[in-house]
Amino acid sequence: MATGEVEEVLEVLDSCIPRVKWRLRAAAKRRLETEISMADILALCTELRPVVMVDYGGKMPELQENLCALLHLCHKETSVLQPLRVMVIEDMIYLIHVKGLADYALLSLSSCSQLLFVDLEQDPPRMLLQTQQNIVASQLTSIQKLFSSTFSVNEMKDDALPDVPLPMKNEGVESSEQAADGLSHVGELVAYQSSVFIDLSSCMQDTEVTLPTLNGWLLGYPIVYLFSKEHVADAVYNLSTKALNLFKVVVGRNKTSSKGPCQEELLSFTVPYDLSMGGENEPWAVAFLTHMQAKFERCKQTWRYLRMEVSECYPQSIAL
Fold it and tell me: What Pfam families would the database entry show (predicted)?
């Protein structure tokens, strides 16, 4: 991603974000503008990450409508943002890079890429390989295959994506912009939403896979918490009573302007301290950082550095 494309993306976002009715307080809107423009979108466009979870900008279903409106506006302004889509799984919402997710799903199924799990049904939690027999891990593999077929690298076309048009009010875009963009009719709003929206909630039906497990894989963590829907309470207790190591990958952007922070968090995840006492020197952590640095090398025009930071967290109440 060339420097000029980075600035183009940021300018488009600066222009389009205010044209969407977010209905947020000032502080929340500032966070939205910072995280969408500076971190998440650039991480997707440079393929440092295939998926980011959006936990800011409002609540569903309004958040979904607003993100769809934003992407529609952005797609009209620049081709750089064309690969991005809004994806929903149950009550979680994500921004995805279609090709990046296709590549990631395919890689996840290869023999050279094996997830490590922390089995939270056990006290104390224990580490599991994806190849070890476990019904939830096996079902996650089936979900990975579904993602791989849905986002096939060779066969995927825009009209082949599992679009699910949902009713939208004429509130996603400011009224003056609706007229300017020809989006004044509900039918047109439904059409443009379906072009940028993917609903994969069905991927978890009839499985014991929980959202924290699916999110761990989707968001690119090397260690994924594993527990079935029947053992959520056990998982919460077993994790809340343990000290944790917080692993954080941070990046610095090559900036041509003074806007935005110098350092940004790319992703973060936790691992029970007793299973990660080596910190960043754990073999899996070294392998993960090497993998991320290989991605970083391909987009050094955008990012100045990438590094891992590790800190200890004391036992605390945790929601899963």
Answer: DUF4504
Class of residue 206 by CB neighbours under 10 A (exposed 0-12, middle 13-18, buried 19+): exposed
Q: What is the C-alpha to C-alpha distance for residues 164 and 97, in angstroms, rounded to an integer?
A: 18
Q: How far apart are CA 129 and CA 147, in angstroms?
A: 21
Smallest CA-to-CA distance from 101 within 122, 116, 86 is with 86
- Helices and strands in the chain: count of H runs, count of E runs: 11, 10
241-291 pLDDT, tens digit per residue, is 999 999 999 999 887 555 555 688 999 999 999 999 999 999 999 999 999
Assign residue 23 a region (left: φ > 0; alpha: ψ between -120 and 50; beta: otherwise).
left
Is-contact 280 297, C-beta < 8 A?
Answer: no
pTM surpassing 0.90?
A: no
What span, in angstroms and rounded, lies between the C-alpha atoms of 208 and 214? Answer: 11
Q: How far is 78 from 61, CA to CA, in rounded Å?
A: 26
Q: Under a CB-based contact definition with an 8 Å cutoff, are residues 101 and 151 in contact?
A: yes
Q: Render 133-144 in DSSP notation, one character per residue.
A: --HHHHHHHHHH
Angstrom CA distances, 43 to 27, 61, 85, 93, 148, stand at 23, 25, 14, 17, 21
Q: How far apart are CA 140 and CA 51, in angstroms?
A: 17
